[in-house]
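thought: fold this chain, then report.
action: predict
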Amino acid sequence: MLCDVCGKNPATVHLTEIVDDQMNELHLCEECAREKSAQMEQKFGLSDLLAGMVDFEKVSADKEAESSQCPVCKLSYADFKKIGRLGCANCYVAFRNFLGPLLKRIHGSSQHLGKVPVKTTAKVSRKRINLQELRQKLQKAIESEAFEDAARLRDQIKEMESKEAVQQDPQETKKEDSNESR
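observation:
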């Protein structure tokens, strides 16, 4: 299939445009697709999309938003609306009150509702199950007065808990180790 625009090169990009409830399919070569992309970006930039999504109900809130500024990078909310990008990580905190409703309008929610990697979840679940099993065995060993087994199980539990603590916050463990060596 040849490109619908130039008619020379093979079409490798297939674009579907919906304008006024009419669907148009375009089959473009890479060069024509780049040109089309540049045209679309000029017409509809990310900042336009974000600015269009921002709709404050109160004029006072709008004035407050326009005058707010990130204390670190000095980006104003008005500038964010123009360029469509935040200046630094602290902008998320500085514009928290205004970004929440914006994200909710764009994504339908202000909280992550997506998937979590299966491997990570399964690994954590297995470790918790193993710890629970060891604690149960420890309790049974204590009840049956098998103190040597209980001591061994206690040591295993402590080792697993310390490994879990290191994985959760390795910086804290390093700080504690350096403080203990002093």
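thought: worth noting. The longest strand covers residues 13-19.
final: tokens above.
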